[in-house]
Here is the input.
Amino acid sequence: MYNLVLPGSSKEEYPMIRKWNRRTMILWLALFLITVSLMATTFQPVIQEFQQLIEEDPELYMLFTQMFEQVPFTEEYEVDPVGNPQVRDYKHMLQLMNQILTQAPEFNQTGLVGFPINAILDWPMGTPAGTTAFLNEKVNQQLKKILNQWAVFLGSPDSRYVLSDDPETGWFGRNAMAAMPDFVEDFKCDPSQPYHGFKSWDDFFTREFRAGRRPLASPEDNSVINNACESAPYRVATNVQLQDQFWIKEQPYSLSHMLASDPWTELFEGGTIYQAFLSALSYHRWHSPVSGTIVKTKLIDGSYYAQALSEGYDPASPNRSQAYITHVASRALIFIEADNPDIGLMCIVFVGMAEVSSNEITVYEGQHVNKGDPLGMFHFGGSTHVLLFRPEVSITFDLHGQVPGLDAENIPVLSK
Here is the structure.
């Protein structure tokens, strides 16, 4: 997921969420801390509300204090060899979040594009206090308000300042184009226009492929299930249980929790799951993997910065918790009754990760879709998704010669 390039490397070598460089993260934070310290801090209302929530709720005050204290005071977690600092209290966290709300992500060659808040919270997310706090409903309601506020800026023309040809920080500059060499050929844009014709950062991020760049595999063969997202295979699981201990190290899937106790959950008990994650430099729209009828859609509120405590400190959190967050994170469910009776009812679960938790469904119940038709999109980043099949479905996956996992590479959307 999120392939970004580190200096002297290829994008395949350093997938973003998979292999964040800890030294890079601390360096970014150090530079950002200097900027913030020179500015008078007047919190935006949503940040004021978050501070009030933390300080007036005794449990949250304890947890947000402890999560920073529980991060080990060792060289690995405290400083890099240059001595750059890690955020160590919630007030500093609030100052940084306040500044981020009026900034668009610049391009860089690190693993931090699009995830500035995640960088601040990365180690605290893995503490006992952090894993508890970020499951709290009140915390997640406020984080949703904060991220929605950021989305207003990212959807505005003011956010286009990063769509420049600056060689290092511009999304159409030297470094960015080296990471996305086929951008103009792949995506709908007009290089002759300012900002390549994009109306905002979000317009750029949710860009569409040009016609013919991602042909639909086997359009007339309803026995072929197509790739719903431009994504890399993460896990295949069979005989999935209705309830399981999804929080343990192995992170088995637990259907009743993943589907939020939907009445159709039991139909999938013993079935098969395919999970795959998306790339940050690529494409963020969803497409129907089968021809059929949309029979139900649902948006589920959940967590934004939760990770499995069993994973400990993950330098790319919640990367190693991808199966876990399918049960707790903000997500969208789309149930499709496939035209092919051998497939029948299936479900797709689109799961937000960290800042990337804005799931937009663009189909309606009762609508018939053909393979490859649009279903929706992620805003402000890539994420992970699940295809869920009933136990009666006999299915063989073409993983394009790969083993599912964090090192897998993207399989094109609409392919087999």
